[in-house]
Amino acid sequence: MLAATGHRICNDCMKACIYQKQEPVDIPQAETRTLKDVLELPWGFEIYSLLTRWNPFDIRRPYPKPATGKRILVVGLGPAGFTLAHHLMNDGHTVVAIDGLKIEPLEPALSGVDPLGNRAAFQPIRK
User: Fold this and answer.
1) Angle between helices 79-90 and 44-53 (to 10 degrees)
2) Degrees, nearest 5: CA angle 125-126-127
3) C-beta separation of 46 from 125 below 8 A
4) Radius of gyration of the chain (CA)
5) CB-based contacts of 56: which residues, under 8 Å, 6+ apart?
6) From start to end of the chain, where are the E strands?
7) Residue 69 pLDDT more than 90?
8) CA 30, 79, 8: angle at the middle one, nearest 5?
9) Cα 51 → chain centroid
10) Dihedrals φ, ψ of 107, to 5°?
């Protein structure tokens, strides 16, 4: 979630550590650079897509749960709404999210899912 949701470090570190008198840490820039580096790799989009659904760091549950049949609407895709939608999807629920900004869905050839949620022919992205 770090690359998408922003700050995940204490505010003191963002300003400058008051205990060690060090330079401030620009967390949003570091997270953005990490995401850009991953997406610029060959097959970077596929790597990023895999890691949004499969979590190798969660030993208790690295894979999403099976579909529950429950449908959930998340209103607002700020850090909290985005994270909530992500966790609900991994819990097996169908999630629809709306936001004030216009967010366009990915083409079915990129995401492997059509606008109705059905599987579509998937075309890997080399670059």
Assistant:
1) 70
2) 95
3) yes
4) 17
5) 62
6) 71-75, 94-98
7) yes
8) 40
9) 8
10) -60, 145
| 21-65 pLDDT per residue, tens | 666 666 666 667 777 787 788 887 787 777 777 777 777 878 888
d(CA 103, CA 38): 22
Q: Where are the beta strands (DSSP E) in 27-93?
A: 71-75
Q: Do 85 and 97 form a contact (C-beta atoms < 8 A)?
A: yes
Q: Which two tokens stand for residue 46?
A: 């596929």
Note whether 74 and 95 are within 8 A (CB).
yes
Closest CA to 102 of 122, 77, 120, 127: 77
The candidate with the shortest Cα–Cα distance to 92, out of 61, 126, 127, is 61
From the list 1, 9, 40, the residue with the least C-alpha distance to 26 is: 9
CA distance 45 to 59: 24
